[in-house]
Design a protein that fits this description.
Layout: E1 4-11, E2 16-22, E3 25-30, E4 40-42, E5 47-50, E6 52-57, H1 78-92, H2 96-109, E7 112-120, H3 128-139, E8 145-151, H4 162-171, E9 176-180, H5 189-203, E10 206-210, H6 215-231, E11 238-241, H7 251-263, E12 267-270, H8 281-286, E13 291-293, H9 310-320, H10 326-335, H11 338-343, E14 359-362, H12 367-373, E15 377-382, E16 385-389, E17 392-393
Parallel strand pairs: 1-4, 1-5, 6-7, 7-8, 8-9, 9-10, 10-11, 11-12, 12-13
Antiparallel strand pairs: 1-2, 2-3, 5-14, 14-15, 15-16, 16-17
The structure holds zinc ion.
Zinc ion (ZN) binds at residues 56, 58, 118, 210, 296.
């Protein structure tokens, strides 16, 4: 952990001040701080925001650095996309360590200092992806903090041997147990969820489940998830990613589910998708439900979109949720910084004493303008150490 004095920045577009980081933690924010023993970075009156947080991505599967991938599969069938990806990863010989280094450094250059990555576990590739992403996490520990989820992308019950691989991934240090559409992919919600919760219970770890199932089917799976979270006393330890079913039009049904989610302190991760129903920020905020946001996979066999920029993702959160007022746009950004970290049960990223010393300097007049234009990142600081300047990390990608 490092120490640094960042001089003359506007704290969340407010008054000019200096930020003193000592041993990786924000120790003081005030004008004219004197700290002769600490290196200095001039802030030049730029806006200071906390380090960005990508709370849902897939570092092992991006095709960054490869020639353009021509997508012939489309998005009509989840099963077809899963099969295609597993086969393409094998035929291309993708190296999960190299791909995760490229992806993590791309997003770190744009100000992300904390990532939760789902990592594929399947009977074709075994633990190769988890080993590669863990190697990246260790190598980039000073640049970006990476948390891993053991993710049964190809199904858990339909591919024998996957649960045993998940068990091994958790034993070797994966941070959370993943899951995926218990009805839609495995067509065995009881078997899938009993296995996921059984692994979490055995290893004493939290859960983050991809739930794309829409409407009543998603609500049915969500109820089964919450039954198990309640039975095992997993208050605050369960995350549901996507949760498209919460965007269904049945207001009373959704409100009742939100009450259940809030009572168990279940966290929701969203990409603020434009092509599907989605949980709504204001509705979740009214229930005090913690929300994080993520870029999900970027430039992979699933789709050509995504650039790893969580400031741009904040714009998508704002657009998807009709957040227009400056204070509302700041809430969209908070979901991509401090709120996202809290949803990951990590210390809140914030520009205040005692918070992690993760700071991003952005150009622009106001925070709302910086979000809307996803303004250039001039400086990124992680734990008091400068990690990127003018959109490029100091560590080179392979
Ligand atoms: Zn995902």
């Amino acid at each position: 952990m490092s120490s640094l004095l960042i001089q003359n920045v506007r704290i969340m577009d407010g008054e000019a001040a200096d930020i003193l980081i000592r041993d990786g933690v924000v120790s003081r924010i005030a004008p004219g701080i004197e700290a002769p023993d600490v290196p200095v970075e001039p802030g030049g009156g730029l806006i200071a925001i906390p380090g960005l947080v990508d709370a849902h991505t897939h570092l092992d599967k991006s095709l960054l650095g490869w020639p353009w991938y021509k997508n012939d599969v489309g998005g009509a069938s989840l099963t077809a996309m899963i099969e295609n990806e597993r086969n393409m990863k094998k035929s291309l010989g993708l190296d999960p360590h190299v791909q995760s280094m490229r992806h993590a450094l791309k997003t770190a250059a744009l100000g992300t200092t904390l990532i939760r990555s789902h990592v594929d576990i399947d009977t074709d590739a075994g633990l190769r992806a988890m080993e590669g992403v863990m190697e990246t996490a260790a190598r980039l520990a000073d640049v970006v903090e990476i948390e891993t989820v053991a993710f049964p992308q190809s199904g858990l019950m339909i591919r024998e041997g996957t649960a045993e691989l998940m068990d091994r991934a958790l034993a070797m240090g994966a941070d959370l147990v993943g899951g995926l559409d218990p009805c839609g992919v495995d067509r065995d919600p009881k078997g899938h969820l009993d296995t996921v919760f059984g692994l979490a219970d055995k290893h004493g770890k939290g859960i983050d489940i991809h739930l794309h199932e829409r409407g009543e089917l998603g609500m049915f799976s969500m109820d089964m998830i919450l039954d198990r979270a309640a039975a095992l006393g997993m208050h605050g330890l369960v995350t549901i990613s996507h949760a498209f079913c919460l965007g269904m039009p049945d207001f009373q049904r959704v409100e009742a589910m939100l009450e259940r989610l809030a009572a168990l302190d279940v966290r929701i991760m969203t990409t603020a998708p434009t092509s599907s129903p989605a949980p709504l920020v204001k509705q979740l905020d009214a229930h005090g439900i913690r929300i994080g946001a993520g870029n999900d996979g970027i430039q992979d066999t699933w789709g050509p979109y995504g650039n790893g920029d969580m400031l741009e993702r904040a714009k998508f959160v704002g657009l998807r949720n009709n957040l227009r007022m400056d204070a509302e746009v700041k809430r969209a950004l908070d979901i991509c910084t401090g709120g996202g970290a809290e949803a990951m049960a990590r210390p809140r990223r914030a520009l205040e004493t005692g918070a992690p010393g993760d700071v991003v300097l952005v150009a622009g007049e106001t925070v709302a303008e910086a979000v809307v234009t996803h303004a250039p990142r001039k400086l990124v600081v992680k734990g008091g150490r400068v990690t990127a300047r003018d959109g490029a990390t100091l560590v080179a990608a392979p």
